[in-house]
Structures are given as C-alpha cells and as structure tokens.
Amino acid sequence: MISRRDVVGGVVLAPALLSARASIAAGTAHSPPSLEELLKPATTRGAALSPDGQQIALLSEREIDGKTYGMVTFVKAADPTATPRTLRVGTMKVQRIAWANNERLLIWAVTDARVAGAPAVGSRMGAIYKAPKVRRVLAINADGSGKDVVLFGASRIKLRENFDLGYVVDMLPDDPRNVLMAIGELTRPTLGLYKVDVYTGEPELVEYGGTSTYGWWVQDGVPVLRYDYNSRGTVLSLHARPPGAKDWTFVRKIRVSELETPDFEILAGTDDPGVLLVASRQDGEETRILRKFDLRTRALGEAVSQRPGRDVENALVDERGRFLAARYTDDRVVYQFADPKLNSHHKAMNAFFNNEANVKLVDASADRERFLAHVSGPRMPGSYFFYDKQAKRFDALGDRQPWLSEARLAPMATLDVTARDGVKLRAYLSTPITPGPHPLVVFPHGGPETRDSLSYDLFAQAFAAQGWLVLQVNFRGSSGYGRAFADAGRRRWGDRMQEDVEDAVAQVLASGKVSPGKVAICGASYGGYAALMGAVRNPTLYKTVVSIAGVSDLPDILAYEREDGEDSPSYRYWVKTIGDPDTDKAALEAASPARRAKAIAAPVLLVHGLLDGVVPARQSRIMAKALRDAGKTVEHVEVRDLPHAPRDEDETRMMLDPVLAYLKTALA
What we know:
Strand content: 35-45%
Structural class: alpha+beta
Shape: globular
Helix content: 10-25%
Number of helices: 14
CATH topology of the domain at 410-553 and 592-666: Rossmann fold
CATH class of the domain at 410-553 and 592-666: Alpha Beta
Radius of gyration: 25 Å
Strand order of the largest sheet: 30-31-33-32-34-35-36-37
C-alpha cells in the first residue's frame, strides 16, 4: 500500500512525511494486534487548523509518572518541519480540539469524577448521551499567555448541576470573543442556549429550547433551525425561524437511526440568509442529492451536488459553515468540490497512498489554501496530515494509534459478486496476515440501509487478528447505491437479502481460502438478524452463529416501532422496509428466526445491551426462549451498560469480549 515516492501529482512531500511513511511501511512488528491494542485509546486525539491557516494544533494524551496528561502541540503551518511547541494542559483525558479564533483554543476534556447528587442519566444531554463522566471545555491561548478558563466556569451552579458542558453549537466566527453553547437545564425540562465568553468563561442566556429540544443550527450567529426529539429518540422534528421571524414554525418530522443517514439532513449553510443545503431524495429521484432549502418557503431548490448511482453522505464546510465539497463513497471516499480546481489537489493526496486510503478533509483555512486531512484505510487506523496548496507540501502530523502498523493489520480486498439473478454486488474480504487456509466469519452490516466500504473496520480487524477471514457484503437493501438498490431489499429480509450474502459466501468458499467446515456468521442489529436467518436457511453451512443486538421476531419489532404511533415517520419507514403487520402477517412470521428456531442446527450466541433503545433486549430474549424450547444450543448474554451501538472503547470491549471468546472456541 505504501509508496515511497517523494513527488506525486506535482505535490512535493516533506521529509517528515517520508520518514513517517517509511516507518509505517517497515512496521514495528509482524504479529497481529491483540484486542487490547486495537482498543487502546488513540495517542493523537485530534487536530485543528487556525482560521487564518497559520497554526496547527494537535491534541494528544501522554502517560507521565503514572498519570494521564492532555497535551497540545503547536505546529507552524509555514514550516511544519520546524521544532513544534508543546503545552501540558493538565491531568485529564482529552477528546477533541478546535480554534475559537486565531489565538484562543478550545479543548474538550473528561474526568472520572461524577457530579455529586446527579441522577443516573444526568441532565437532558446526559439522557441522550448517558455520559457517565464530567465533560468540560477548556479555553487557552495558543502562545501560553493569558488566562486559562473553563467555559461556564464563572457559573458555579452550572458546574455543579451539569456533568456535560461540552456542547458547542456554533463558533460564531464573526464574534471572536464568544461561542454558542447548549446545556441541559435542571431547573426546567429543556436545553438552554448560551453565548459564552472564551476569555472569561462567563455565560449569557440567549434563549431556551422546547421541552424536547436537542439542538440548533446557526446561520451568521443566529439560530435558524431547532431540533426536537420524541421521547424514544426515533423521530426528529425540525422547526425553523428564518431571518426576521420571531417565532419557531414546524417544518417536518424525520426518522432517526443510530446507523443510517436521515432522509432529510441539513449539511451546510450558504451566503443567502435563510437558505441552507440539505441532503434528500425526493419522489422519483434515484439518489440522495445535495440541494438548497429555503427556510421561509420550506421549499427545496436547485441541486448543488449529485453523483450518478451514489448517495451524497456528508459535506465539507469552512469555518462559517459554508459549503466546500460534497462527500460520497465509491469503495473509498471521494469529493465533489464547489471549486473544481480542488479536485486535482485531492487526487494528488489520494495518489500518494496509491489510491488505497480514505483522505477525509476535516479542516480548511479561511482562504481555502491550507487543509487538514484525516487519512485512514483498511490497514491504517488513522493519521492526520497537513496540505498546503501554494507550498505544495503534504506533511504527516500524527498517527492516532502508531502501534498498529500496516504490517500488523489485515488487508482488505474488493470482491465483485454476481448474485444468482445476475445483479452485480460489491463485497469486501479481509485476510489475516498469518498463512491460510483460515476459518471464515461472514459479517453482514447493520441498518440494513447502510453500507460497508474499503476502510478501517475495528470489528473486521479484531476477527482477522484471530486468524479468520472476514466477509462483508453490500447486499441489496444497502445504502449508498441509490434508491433502486435500497428498494430491492425492502420486504425481502428473509429471502433476497439473504441470497445475496449466500452468493458471496459461495464465491469465497470456491476460492479454496477457507478451512473446511469452519464458517461462522456474526452480525449486529440488522446484521444480527441476517446471522440468525442465515442459520435458518443454511443449517449445515454455519458452524456457529452470533447475533449482537439482533432482530429475531419481525411482528414484535414492528409492534415496538408502532408505539411511536402509526403516523410516525419511523413506523412508516419500517412498514415499508420490513412489511405491514396487518397485511403481511404470514410473510413476516416466515421471515422471523424466532418463529423458525427448529430449523437452526448450529449453536447460537445472543449478546444484547440493556440500554438498547433501538432493538429492545426482549428481541434476544424471545430468540433465546425459542431456541431452548426447540432443544437447541444457545448462550444468551445481557450487558447492563451497553446501548445499541458502542460509543467508546469500554463499550466496544463489553460487546466484543463475549463474541471473541465464543468464536475462538467454536472455530478452534
């Protein structure tokens, strides 16, 4: 993967980058990483470019005398190879970093101390995030002068009442002294929006949200959109207050999923007051398109970015929230830039990594001459790079997990699969670095309306490190490929979507790479359903089955979604995607693994978090009972503090530990 060329596409590479790249290529060891190494917190936690493009700040953690210190390293953008300056900001765990202005830096940090007397889920923000630790934002001067302050630090009541004071809504680029922040108000059931002085930490109330407000979208320093959630977090209500309006007006409801992109998503601002950019797919349109949205008329306008056969996923914006580029995924990340001249620059960055990495642009200077990129790939957990257009430099800044060298990680290859009905599918196969043949773990993704790509995948690397091949398939019903591909999986959970996975498995088995008789299937969320249904359909193929937070009974999960109301966007979506419980009852029962447990021959592991609000834990309980009643072998693990999708290393370990232990025994 690594090229040592010093000139790529006209970009001159700095000596520091060459040294870092050569180190990665050589590798520090050739043994697969342990789970502890894979989950070890990143050394480099974040990077940020000052608005004027003159300074780069790198955030890291370092162990000194048994204590964890947050560190900030400042790099001169004009000469990234010069000796940097590093500040120790205290004994704390740090999360991210951002510039409030050209001299003042914000650092997000967490501590182990809990808020005395706070309820288990804390403030309103805590109820959403269930943050068990105290989160604060520290403001410092980049040159070490001035006073370091904690935002909201001037308000002792706020510090005492709220464990999460880390929600910055907008950096207010036209007001270098202040930022907008939202906090949960314990004196009233809502969020409060505050203007906070980054030099004193002093807050000033701007307004209160509604009783279910989650956040705001700000344009030119003024909140113009408000986000309200329902009690289960499955439906988002948008309210608009265009420039000049006094009151908030309801716009629309949007279905929300932890794993899937919404069907209507604000991604960027524009120079026109009250006009934002939204990603949506309208009736009759094949792909998700980025287009203008007028808050006054609530009408969608001209398309700003679209790509044949691909859905827009996100947008790159400048410090004012203005649009720079739309992001798509082929096998890897690609951009469509507002300024076409930037295309050649991004291509040069990609070429340096032999077009095998995902070069995501994460920050840009105000003049759009300097950029920060986060680069990752199947064998690259993530590194930060600095790109200077005029100087034609591309400098390595810091690896997130430098102990995970390329030589230790499993390569991922693309597979072209032809389904039994002739449809072309894309799949990905990760291969252990140890000699084969190997056991195979089939790993269907969740959603189902998400997708896999040629990228760093923690679960795939954890499985491959055990010596297992890992197969990931973008079956019909996956997102990213347009409406027709996603629609081809609707109401076909029990057959067509399963057939696509089966056809990919057959192709890998025919390659001779798989140890005979050692095939497992494992998935989470929809992937957990696919694992269970795969065992129903192929009793002799799989040696063992693992379902993590998986759906097992379709009528029951639809009844759960129906609790939001039959007019809920969430319920309507799932009826469209899974089936109508009133008219498709027989088909839903036939496609429910819990209703067909007698057909399963392989032993099954069920893992489910008790904090799961997306797929309730009762889905695994139903499956466990059905398997036991059928005389089958099943292990059922419930994890008390685990939500639907893990949010940090600790929760990922809670999920993976029982899975790896189970599969090690089953595939031995």
